[in-house]
Each structure stands twice: as structure tokens, then as C-alpha cells.
Amino acid sequence: MSKVRVYELAKKLGISSKKLISILEELDVDIKNHMSSLEDDMAQLIMDLVSEEKGSKKTKNETPKAPEPPKKTEEVSTKPKIQKVVLPSKISIKDLGNRINIEPVKLIKKLMDFGLMVNINAEIDFESAKKLIKEFGYEAEEEREDKLAELEKEEETRPEELKPRPPVVTVMGHVDHGKTTLLDAIRETNVAASEAGGITQHIGASQVEKDGKTIVFIDTPGHEAFTALRARGAKVTDIVVLVVAADDGVMPQTVEAINHAKAAGVPIIVAINKIDKPGANPERVKQQLSEYGLIPEEWGGDTIFVNVSAKNRIGIDTLLEMILLVAEMAELKADYNARASGVIIEAKLDKGRGPVATVLVQKGTLKVGDAIVAGPAYGKVRAMRDSRGRMVKSATPSIPVEVMGFSEVPSAGDVIRVVSSEKEAREIAEKYQEIHKEKENITTPKVSLDRIFDRIKQGEIKELNCIIKADVQGSLEALKLALEKCSTDQVQVKIIHGAVGAINESDILLASASNAIVIGFNVRPDSNAKKLAEQEKVDIRTYRVIYDAVDDIKAAMKGMLEPEFKEVILGRAEVRALFKVPNVGTVAGCYVTEGKITRNSFIRVIRQGVVIYEGKILSLKRFKDDVREVMSGFECGIAIEKFNDLKEGDILEAFVNKQVEQ
Ligand SMILES: Nc1nc2c(ncn2[C@@H]2O[C@H](COP(=O)(O)OP(=O)(O)OP(=O)(O)O)[C@@H](O)[C@H]2O)c(=O)[nH]1
């Protein structure tokens, strides 16, 4: 089939262009109108889908969920038996259909129910394939050629072999509250006299000793780095030290850090810093933190607070003692004799030494000479250095080491494993590369409001995690309460983070790591957050009325979310100058930074991430002429109906509401 226009295809299929356009929009196909051309394979897919739909309407007796009869059965049985199939770690929809003798179009439709839009040649991973064919009465087993799966199986814990391991600590807190100074203070006070003058190596994590016990600190402070690793599936940190400056108190990033640590289920120790300062008020910090559930022991809570001055090296010893205490209570243990594995904390290409990576061993003992694999990188441990720069021959659980000998630079968050030979390491790395090089790598969709109901039904979701960002504290509190009240017996709505301000990258990372949706009330995502959300497949919903948000959540939980209108963002422009024009009002001289602005679009005025007005365009001009649209890279004059309070630097977001056909 050659290229075909939308209206031609609609005619061929005997449906209206409007209906076809809505199908295409469902499939995320980028089309402008009924004159747009479609690629061959897309046209073919639509034809298959529509004819399948028509077919299934005719044959009413067919129950699509019933298991297909097994292809070949040795014995004749009356009950449909669950068929086992062996599948590779990646398979195309087409091949999968062939293997289980089910038309690929049926598989595509089922995937659409799961929220995945794919074409017939798209490859899905084993887990997705397994879930998919389960719907058709098949059970999938992964092909044994996947050595990683074997290794993972082998990694099952042997409780009798577990021995205590050192805690791994991440320092978090608001900007300038003293995270870096505190880490420096900890490292310096720990350098033994004999080593004085010895330079601490920054390899990504540092090891310090206290009373003969070891504590490991992650060198990059902050909750972003912590949650980024977590979003990649790596759980590294055992304890969070939350630094709060005694003269400044709880600030927005203090709250972010608390919520990121809580979402990860990691215990928090509070270090009230800068107690040397004249304005220091540790009691006020305790009071403030108690509002976030961090209640000091003397007030009947179970959070440990330590007063410190990172600058004057006061309280550091006590802090270390408290870390050891919390670690002891957490009973951190690992099997020192298991096959070694760990997480890459940091990696780089060193001019002289080639790829080097800092590894935090989590299990077993990593030794020089071990064959290793981490994502696409493999090799043999040539040499290892500890955080003091000393060459070491082995590294036990929790101990950070810089490893040399990788074929290429692995990524932070990759799991490193020891395997039996370098050959095996190479094979596993090649397999990994093969799987990951395809662009159409399907990641499991995170929670999306549209698909909530399906996932509730499948028992996948018991808690609906939400992150709320709002323009003011009052609306934040109101929305929190209103949403929490939406909880039902089956699903609990849980607000894992709420704050005032624009939706930022850290919110998206937290959502990704915790499978949460992000709700913006009168605020918008900044552009980095928007990009990251697309990449991480995080669902962002923005509202201007609390009841709309509540209605949507309720409807999604009942499987009745039927948005009548879908908002489509056309573009953004930045206000660069303002002019007062008689009979018109304020005209903003703008520069279109993204997409386009059209005369009939709606405009949203955003100031520092907060939506301050929504309305219609009154006039759109290029020089003296009224124009229908202005593309990105051009300047224009915009006046907004009934709104004159524009300021330089405001962002004007143009959008239209498209009706979604039911
Ligand atoms: N008086 C006093 N000043 C301190 C103390 N700790 C840190 N500071 C100062 O506070 C400022 C910020 O400290 P940093 O350690 O850079 O803070 P940070 O939290 O790492 O900051 P970011 O990395 O920017 O987030 C620096 O000027 C420090 O010298 C302290 O205990 N007392």
C-alpha cells in the first residue's frame, strides 16, 4: 500500500474521518487533519484494528478473555489447560503472536488496554510479554540463555550466612545549610594522625571509622542524586542525615528531602547545624520538624536530633555515634561469601586508567581478578582503590571501591555482578547491549490516571501515590485533605510529597521512583521537568479547581475517567516588552520560544511557574498585521482579553481544548 490520506483511509474503512482521527490520536499518531498522510504500516495497523473490531462485533458469542485452545496438546482434555511457552527476553508483537497462535492485532489491542501504544514490529520485554499472554491463558518462562536471570536466582539470600555490615549514609538538606561542610568535617576528623596531610580521595563515597566500626558516606549530598539512583532501581542508602541550619530552620528543600527519604523508607537522623551562629535556635527547628513527623525522643518521638557545627567541628563524634546506633537497630546484614554484586555509584573515563567506576559492594566480596559485568560494560577487576586512595585486594559489603578493568564506562545505578569467567561476562554484556540498543525499548508505564482502574483491578495498585504542587499553602492543604478523603477500601490515596511551587525535576524523579502521579494546582511543570516526565513516563495533571482534581481521582478509581476535553499545548512565548495601547490595553511584545501561538488559542499566563491567569487572545500581531499564527523563533505582539497585568519575563502558554470522541 502506498501512502494514504486520513480521509481516504476513513472512506475505505467505512467510518467518519472524525472517528479515524480520534483513533489516531489514541495511538499517539501525529496528524494535523483529515488531509494528513499516513505511513503504510500505520494505515495497515488501523485497517487491522478496525476490521478486527467489526469482526468481533459480529461474532457476539466469542469471549475474548477465554484462553485460546492450546496449539498442540498431547492429551485431549475438556478444560482449557494453561499452556507454557518459553520466550526470549525481548520479542516482537508479530513473533509473539506466531508463537502462541494469536493474531498480533489482538495482542496490540490488549496492550492498549494496558496503556501501551505499539505497532506490530515493536519489541516488548519478557515481563510485558508474560503479562500479555497471561491474558490469553498462557504462562511464559524466560529462555535459559538469559544468564542474568540464572544469576539473580542464585542470589537468593541465605539467612544463616548473614553478618553485620556497615551502614551507608546520604546527607540531605536545604541549599547552604552545610551538607558539604558537614561531609568534609566528618572525613577530616576521621583522618588518623599518622595520615595527617593525606588527601581524601573523592571516589563517590567515603569510608570513615568510629570506635572500630565503619560508616560509609555517599559523597554527593542531596535528595536528587539519592532519588535518581532509586528511580533506576538501586537501593543504596540505609540512613539519611538531614542537615537543617539552626539559624534558618525548615526550608522547601528540607521538606523535599524528608519526603524523598520517607518515600524510600529510609530512617532519618537530624543534624541541626550552625549552632555556633548567634541566631541559632535548635528548639525552633525541632518544633518545625515535628510538623513533618520528625519528633525528638525527649518529646516522645523516635527521631534522633544532634546539634552540630560543621564549621567548628562540634558534635561530629556524637553524630557518628548516633548513626552507628540507628544502624545497629536496623540490623543491617549481608552475606560476605555470596557471589559478589553491588551498585555503580559513579563512573568516568580516566585518561590514564581507562574506565573507572566506584562500586558499593552489597553482597559477597569483590576481589581483584574477578570477572565482572555491569550493564553494557564487562571485564576483569584489574585493581581496586578504597576511598583513602589505598590499593586493596578485596572489598566486602557496603565498602566503596574504585574499580579498574571495565571494557567501557558503566552508568550510575547499574548493578555490577561477578560471574565465572570473562567470556561469560562479555556474553551477558552483549546481550544487555542487544536489548538496550533498540530505540523502541518499552519501559513499563508508571502510574497513569487513565489506566489506574485497570491496574487496581489487576491488583497491581493498592496505594495511589500522589505528589501535589500548588501555588499557595492554603490550596495545598485543602487539596491534600480532599484527595486523601478519596481513599476507598481497595485503594488508599497517599500524598507522598506536597509543596508550594512549580513542578520541578526532583518531583518527577520522586514520582518515577515511587510510581506516583504529579498533581499541579495552579502551577505548571518547568521545562526540564516536562522533558523528564516524558522520558520517565510520569503522569502530570494540572488543575485550577480542587473539585476537578477530586472528581478525576474518584473517577479514575472507579474506572470512569472520561475526559471530555483534552488540552493540547500549542506553544510558549516569553514576554520581552510591554506597551500600553489605547482601546486595546496592554500589548506584550513576545518571543515565541516553543511551538506556535495561534489567534484562536487560549492563553495561560505563567509567572515563576505559577499560573496567574487563563483567558482568550484579544489580538495577535506581527508588525502591524493581524496574523493567524506565529511560529517559534519569531516575535509578535499579544494582547489578552480582560487582562492587562502582564510583566516582563512572564511566560504565555498557548493551548486549545480538543474534544475527545467517546
Ligand atoms: N557558622 C557556620 N557556618 C557554616 C556551618 N556549616 C556550614 N557553614 C557555612 O554555610 C555555607 C554553606 O555551606 P555548604 O556546606 O556549602 O552548604 P551545602 O548545604 O553543601 O550547600 P549546597 O551544596 O549549595 O546545597 C558555607 O559558607 C559554610 O561555610 C556551621 O556549622 N557554622
From TrEMBL:
<dbReference type="InterPro" id="IPR053905">
    <property type="entry name" value="EF-G-like_DII"/>
</dbReference>
<feature type="region of interest" description="G-domain">
    <location>
        <begin position="167"/>
        <end position="315"/>
    </location>
</feature>
<feature type="compositionally biased region" description="Basic and acidic residues">
    <location>
        <begin position="145"/>
        <end position="164"/>
    </location>
</feature>
<dbReference type="GO" id="GO:0005829">
    <property type="term" value="C:cytosol"/>
</dbReference>
<keyword id="KW-0648">Protein biosynthesis</keyword>
<dbReference type="Pfam" id="PF03144">
    <property type="entry name" value="GTP_EFTU_D2"/>
</dbReference>
<dbReference type="Pfam" id="PF11987">
    <property type="entry name" value="IF-2"/>
</dbReference>
<dbReference type="Pfam" id="PF22042">
    <property type="entry name" value="EF-G_D2"/>
</dbReference>
<feature type="binding site">
    <location>
        <begin position="219"/>
        <end position="223"/>
    </location>
    <ligand>
        <name>GTP</name>
    </ligand>
</feature>
<dbReference type="InterPro" id="IPR006847">
    <property type="entry name" value="IF2_N"/>
</dbReference>
<dbReference type="InterPro" id="IPR027417">
    <property type="entry name" value="P-loop_NTPase"/>
</dbReference>
<feature type="compositionally biased region" description="Basic and acidic residues">
    <location>
        <begin position="53"/>
        <end position="78"/>
    </location>
</feature>
<keyword id="KW-0396">Initiation factor</keyword>
<dbReference type="InterPro" id="IPR004161">
    <property type="entry name" value="EFTu-like_2"/>
</dbReference>
<comment type="function">
    <text>One of the essential components for the initiation of protein synthesis. Protects formylmethionyl-tRNA from spontaneous hydrolysis and promotes its binding to the 30S ribosomal subunits. Also involved in the hydrolysis of GTP during the formation of the 70S ribosomal complex.</text>
</comment>
<dbReference type="InterPro" id="IPR000178">
    <property type="entry name" value="TF_IF2_bacterial-like"/>
</dbReference>
<protein>
    <recommendedName>
        <fullName>Translation initiation factor IF-2</fullName>
    </recommendedName>
</protein>
<feature type="region of interest" description="Disordered">
    <location>
        <begin position="53"/>
        <end position="79"/>
    </location>
</feature>
<dbReference type="Pfam" id="PF00009">
    <property type="entry name" value="GTP_EFTU"/>
</dbReference>
<dbReference type="InterPro" id="IPR023115">
    <property type="entry name" value="TIF_IF2_dom3"/>
</dbReference>
<dbReference type="GO" id="GO:0003743">
    <property type="term" value="F:translation initiation factor activity"/>
</dbReference>
<feature type="region of interest" description="Disordered">
    <location>
        <begin position="143"/>
        <end position="164"/>
    </location>
</feature>
<dbReference type="GO" id="GO:0003924">
    <property type="term" value="F:GTPase activity"/>
</dbReference>
<dbReference type="InterPro" id="IPR044145">
    <property type="entry name" value="IF2_II"/>
</dbReference>
<dbReference type="InterPro" id="IPR000795">
    <property type="entry name" value="T_Tr_GTP-bd_dom"/>
</dbReference>
<comment type="similarity">
    <text>Belongs to the TRAFAC class translation factor GTPase superfamily. Classic translation factor GTPase family. IF-2 subfamily.</text>
</comment>
<dbReference type="InterPro" id="IPR036925">
    <property type="entry name" value="TIF_IF2_dom3_sf"/>
</dbReference>
<feature type="domain" description="Tr-type G">
    <location>
        <begin position="164"/>
        <end position="333"/>
    </location>
</feature>
<keyword id="KW-0963">Cytoplasm</keyword>
<keyword id="KW-0342">GTP-binding</keyword>
<keyword id="KW-0547">Nucleotide-binding</keyword>
<dbReference type="GO" id="GO:0005525">
    <property type="term" value="F:GTP binding"/>
</dbReference>
<dbReference type="InterPro" id="IPR005225">
    <property type="entry name" value="Small_GTP-bd"/>
</dbReference>
<feature type="binding site">
    <location>
        <begin position="273"/>
        <end position="276"/>
    </location>
    <ligand>
        <name>GTP</name>
    </ligand>
</feature>
<feature type="binding site">
    <location>
        <begin position="173"/>
        <end position="180"/>
    </location>
    <ligand>
        <name>GTP</name>
    </ligand>
</feature>
<dbReference type="Pfam" id="PF04760">
    <property type="entry name" value="IF2_N"/>
</dbReference>
<dbReference type="InterPro" id="IPR009000">
    <property type="entry name" value="Transl_B-barrel_sf"/>
</dbReference>
<dbReference type="InterPro" id="IPR015760">
    <property type="entry name" value="TIF_IF2"/>
</dbReference>
